[in-house]
Specification:
With 171 residues, the protein is an all-alpha fold. Helices cover 63% and strands 0% of the residues.
């Protein structure tokens, strides 16, 4: 990673997405993770279309009034260029930087969704988990007090022979 690239990425993503009450270490980790995911998405050929970027811009701008105040999203409201410019000033970003960052975030999201959709346990893993749960469910035990068995004694040779003869099931 190039340090200038890291600083630029950190600045852009920090301006747009905020720190979300993260410590410096957590934010640093978040930025590095996003940079790595972005590179992987690009290497995998993931694409964020202009239409997707435009939809994301409309959604973001929809939360801002032309006075630069955060509002409720009105999906039916027309695109407000003044609100867009106010929002860019608030994020301290140019149009190109803002749209580049949105495009990157879309790539990362799409890549994460693709990875999550293919990460499934294989048959052996599912079977092992099933057996583990089943074994745990079949566990049985008997509880008794030792004093209940203190009167039992060792059987005599005659008692063993008698039991054997009564229970012998020879043909």
């Amino acid at each position: 990673l190039d340090i200038d690239e890291y600083r630029s990425f950190r600045q852009r993503w920090g301006n747009l997405f905020g720190r979300r009450n993260q410590s410096d270490e957590q934010f640093h980790s978040f930025i590095l993770t996003q940079m790595i995911m972005l590179r992987e998405a690009q290497a995998a050929g993931v694409v964020a279309t202009d239409s997707e970027v435009l939809d994301r811009i409309k959604t973001r701008v929809g939360y801002w009034s032309s006075r630069g105040e955060k509002t409720e999203l009105d999906e039916n409201a027309p695109f407000d260029r003044t609100a867009y410019q106010q929002m860019l000033r608030r994020y301290d970003m140019t149009t190109a930087t803002f749209e580049r960052t949105l495009r990157e975030s879309i790539l990362v999201e799409k890549y994460q969704q693709a990875m999550l959709s293919i990460v499934r346990p294989n048959d052996l893993e599912r079977r092992a988990e099933f057996e583990k749960e089943r074994a745990q469910l079949k566990a049985k035990y008997l509880s008794f007090r030792s004093d209940e068995f203190s009167e039992l004694t060792e059987p005599t040779e005659e008692q063993v022979q008698e039991y054997f003869e009564e229970n012998n099931q020879a043909d």
